[in-house]
Write a structure and sequence with these properties.
single chain, 534 residues, ph1033 like fold, Trna Endonuclease, Chain: A, domain 1, seven-stranded mixed beta sheet, six-stranded antiparallel beta sheet, 20 strands, elongated
């Protein structure tokens, strides 16, 4: 599908064009934030879309020719600049240079073309330019960002400063192609796959003090494997510029690979991923469905603790934006998609210790997804410090229970959409409580920085219900107890008379005995209540 930025998803489209009469061409790119009408204008702001390693050709207006090329050396940054517009309207109003808010992009490796491409040369190749411009896959009504006017008049540069140059144009002019190859093949620049390989080796080398170093022992114990690998990832890469842990093809995989920073610069990603790509050894992605459901359930109860990590999706060759970690939706569970949760580091400045810290924080998520009944799943290492306030129940801000879309939802959505499951449990629980004589039943009642899933009064007694969507009673209790202890013990907080953990699994004998032991020490009566959905 075409987009406004037609080059996204095509790494070969890495060329740009600066149209300028500057005397210091090749030093940097710089432009104002707004045009003379105080509006955003892509002919100024387009270079914010460059990424490190891209090439920018320079059209020198004083010579009416493409004369040189540079490499993008860093991300754009805001800076006050001296600027005067150069177009016809600017000349008519006698525009003078002024200090204005702007941005700049650093450049490196500036070289001249062996033979400049003059405006006359471009005019002689008009048919080539027309073919190139026509082939740009832009959406209807969207700009092509092409630098040359192809109207009834002779070819000429468009008014503006920043333009996108199709790779076909670079290939069509030998002098441009030769200069591009010279910059792309400069010695001393390691390829991304070599840097990823080095990053994986550094992780393995420094892993011993970290929990992730015991990943393969954990897998062997849980899966009954006869052999245990000594390394996390094994030898070599499993893809052109990425890899995952040994045995991870059909799992929530620990993944390291070539990716990009928020500003588009090259990066190494470190984290966990689901690959929904079928293969001969993994023919059906539906085998991942229960694991995605457990991923969603765990994430809902720990998302605040992962707030500094990011999540993003690949659909084929197209990478989506970085977003706050969130459950995998039914729409995302599609053949060919790749879903990642973790962090990125600059490609050439990789820190294996920071990477190992991320992997350790995600190890409990992996356990919860792959081995839901194992000890230690659904816990997370402490990360960062937060202060808890005296928590007063804000009844006036609670709301009535709202029914979900359970009846019309698909089977897959009922399994994967934890918010849908949570809402349906709330609805069914409320109906049952009304029949049992509870009154003033409200949900999502704020208490400090959290909210109680559901509250109700039975006579004069305040009951608090904490709903969990975990796959076992044990996981539901584990996830709820911290919150319930907070409600019952925190100084100054509203004290409930009873607290109830609500889940979909049935209570078993071990869980019943565990609750009995808890009640020997717990200051408020605690119970578990099943609200089945299936």
């Amino acid at each position: 599908m075409a987009s406004a930025n037609w080059w996204l998803g095509n790494p070969g489209e890495r060329y740009w064009l600066e149209s300028t009469d500057r005397a210091d061409i090749g030093l940097d790119l710089r432009a104002p934030e707004l045009d003379s009408k105080n509006e955003d204008n892509w002919r100024y702001s387009l270079f914010k879309s460059t990424i490190v390693g891209d090439l920018v050709f320079h059209y020198d207006k004083k010579r009416s020719a493409i004369t040189s090329v540079s490499r993008i050396a860093g991300a754009w940054a805001s800076r006050e600049i001296v600027w005067a517009a150069r177009g016809t309207s600017a000349r008519e109003r006698a525009a003078v240079p002024l200090r204005v808010p702007g941005y700049f992009v650093p450049l490196e490796d500036h070289i001249s073309l062996e033979n400049v491409i003059s405006l006359d040369d471009l005019r002689l190749q008009r048919s080539v330019l027309e073919k190139i411009e026509k082939a740009i896959p832009r959406s209807k009504g969207k700009a092509a960002y092409f630098p040359f006017e192809l109207s009834a008049r002779p070819v000429r540069p468009l008014q503006g400063y920043a333009f996108k140059l199709p790779a076909d144009m670079v290939r069509s002019f030998p002098a441009m192609q030769a200069a591009a190859r010279q910059l792309l093949d400069l010695p001393g620049r390691e390829k991304p796959e070599d840097l990823v390989r080095s990053a994986v080796s550094a992780i393995e080398r420094e892993a011993k003090p970290y929990g992730i170093s015991r990943l393969q022992q954990m897998r062997s114990h849980a899966l009954g494997l006869s052999r245990t690998s000594r390394t996390i990832f094994g030898p070599g890469l499993k893809g052109p510029d990425w890899t995952f842990h040994l045995g991870g093809r059909g799992e929530l995989q620990f993944n390291v690979g070539h990716d990009q920073l928020d500003n588009g610069g090259p990066a190494i990603r470190v984290g966990v991923a689901f690959s929904f790509q079928a293969s001969r050894s993994f023919p059906k992605i539906d085998a991942l469905l229960p694991k995605v459901a457990r991923f969603n359930a765990w994430l809902r109860d720990h998302v605040e603790e992962l707030g500094d990590l990011k999540m993003w999706f690949w659909q084929g060759l197209t990478r989506g934006p970085n977003v706050t970690p969130s459950p995998v939706t039914e729409a995302s569970f599609k053949e060919g998609n790749f879903i990642f949760l973790g962090a990125v580091q600059p490609l050439a400045k990789f820190d294996p210790i920071a990477a190992l810290q991320v992997l350790d924080r995600l190890l409990p998520l992996y356990e919860a997804v792959e081995f839901p009944s194992s000890k230690g799943a659904n816990t997370i290492p402490a990360h960062g410090a937060g202060s808890l306030r005296d928590d007063i129940l804000q009844i006036g801000k609670g709301r009535e229970v709202v029914g979900g879309r359970w009846i019309t939802a698909s089977t897959k959505e009922r399994l994967l959409n934890i918010y849908l499951r949570h809402a349906e449990v709330q609805r069914r629980l409320r109906e049952a409580l009304v029949e049992e004589g509870y009154c003033k039943i409200l949900c999502e009642v704020p208490i400090g920085s959290r909210s109680v899933d559901l509250i109700g009064w039975l006579g004069e007694a305040l009951w608090m219900f904490e709903i969990k969507t975990g796959p076992t009673v044990r996981s539901c209790l584990r996830e709820a107890l911290g919150q319930l202890l907070e409600y019952a013990l925190w100084p100054g907080a509203t004290k409930p008379d009873h607290v109830v953990v609500v889940g979909t699994p049935a209570l078993d004998e071990k869980a019943r005995r565990y609750i009995e032991e808890l009640n020997r020490a717990f200051p408020v009566p605690l119970s578990y209540r099943q609200v089945p959905l299936d």
